[in-house]
Amino acid sequence: MDSLPPAKRRRESKDGETEASTLSPVVIFAHGAGAPSSSDWMQRWKNMIKEALRAVDVVTFDYPYMSAKKKAPPKAEKLVEFHSNFVKETATKYPGHPLILAGKSMGSRVGCMVASMKDINVSAVVCLGYPLKGSNGAVRDETLLQLTVPTMFVQGSKDGLCPLEKLETTRKKMKAPNELHVIDGGDHSFKIGKKHLQANNSTQDEVEDVAVLAIAAFISRSLEG
Q1: d(Cα 223, Cα 225) in Å, to the nearest integer?
Q2: What domains are defined for the chain?
Q3: The pTM is what?
Q4: What residue stretches are annotated with the KANL3/Tex30 alpha/beta hydrolase-like domain (predicted)?
């Protein structure tokens, strides 16, 4: 299997010459419920993802409720139209490039809904802290079970919104090829306590670097098909 990032893979042309692959992905990165795309967390992960995937671009946006300064977002289903329109607009700007939908928490859930739409063509979905449990504690797996595109989960082991055993049960029922990278000791935003890091002789940056490399490897395999 080719282990190089998507943008660095090469293919042989008919006359035997090697030419650059056109498979550099474009990532559309959606924010979570409580912080906009300009937040430090989103900007840090945007930069890490762009570098690791050798992406031609990582595009972010804010859902309309953010500019309206509403305290709470509407239901995820009400954000699908705005999200899908943004995906379509981005696709027209980058013809020929695979589209990857990434999202933080709520943004990943809406992204999965968009990826299941018939008129949307994406190559993979990356879920950073997927909110599998709803506010009432019920497991919300319907969206994931409708997916057919390759899906990557990055989850903190201490994320109360996504108990790993419940996610494992859901993953087994999913039609879509899917993988999971666990950030040991991480919360919903992957933050790890100092004692845990010291016990494992690690740092927050090192742990996140490993997670991003896992995402890059997953995307590379998905684009190879």
Answers
A1: 5
A2: 6-224 (3.40.50.1820)
A3: 0.89
A4: 26-219
